[in-house]
Amino acid sequence: MPLNFLKPTYTVESVYNLSVAELKDQGIKAVLTDLDNTLLAWNNPNGTPELHAWLKEIKAAGIEVVVVSNNTWDRVEKAVSGLEVDYVAWSLKPMPRGILKVLKKQGLQKENVLMVGDQMLTDVWAAHLAGVKSVLVKQLVESDMWQTWLNRSLEKLAKKLIYSQKHPLIWHATFKEAVFARENDKN
């Protein structure tokens, strides 16, 4: 299939739908996540109560959460300052640089890591290049930072080429559903 490098391993409605039990069931020890419109709405720097509850639960279970963002160090540091998570800024996605840096620094095995993001052209592609599983999530808010409009336009075209009426893009409510759907697709 053309553009396989942009096709996510899993599709889940939100990063907050990745439950501790489901992550542990799949052997996930770290969730790497994009920042804007994935973990935080780009225009809501403090995050939601849902975000804070999810982070607390994930961290309490011993699963690492690391932000891997293309934003500047100042922007990312300010955004995550109240979240108590590690981060890599200027990661240059779709290059795998930021993801590989986290793997090396934390001593993580690729099969125990998920890269979660709202963009196929940056997050999903970078995950594939780094050799980790990708989770595409819906963007938290419909608006974007001005720099993202070109990616969104190209992504719409890529989605038309990758997905069809016969094989549509399906958003799953839980990670468990996404894993089940992927396993059934292989059969």
> Structural class, judged by helices and strands?
alpha/beta
How would you sum up the major sheet? 6 strands, parallel
Shape: globular
At the first level of CATH, what is the class? Alpha Beta
Roughly what fraction of the amino acids lie in strands?
Answer: 5-15%
Compute the number of structural domains: 1
Question: What is the alpha-carbon Rg in Å?
Answer: 15 Å
CATH architecture: 3-Layer(aba) Sandwich
| Unreliable segments of 5+ consecutive residues | none
List keywords for this structure.
Rossmann fold, alpha/beta, 187 residues, 7 helices, single chain, 39% helix, 6 strands
Describe the structure.
- The structure is a single chain.
- It contains 7 helices and 6 strands, in the order βαβαβαβαβαβαα.
- The chain has 187 residues and is of the alpha/beta class.
- The chain has a single domain, classed as Rossmann fold (3-Layer(aba) Sandwich).
- Strands 1-6-5-2-3-4 form a 6-stranded parallel sheet, sandwiched between helices.
- Helix 2 links the parallel strand 2 and strand 3.
- The protein is globular.
- The two termini are 17 Å apart.
- The mean pLDDT is 88.
In short:
With 187 residues, the chain is α/β, with parallel strands linked by helices.
